[in-house]
Amino acid sequence: EEVVRGKRVLVVDDVFTTGATISEISRVLLKAKAKEVFAVTLARSL
Hints:
By secondary structure, the chain is an alpha+beta fold. It has one domain (8-44). The protein has one helix at residues 20-31, and strands at residues 8-16, 36-44.
């Protein structure tokens, strides 16, 4: 929790399919008191 508390966090994921991974990691980071969570993906599954 101390590592992310009050910080802006960037999550990088290789492939976006359903969004479940980014959604869950964002939920966990915000629960740990991250100030903001941003996400970027490198590819999208069709």
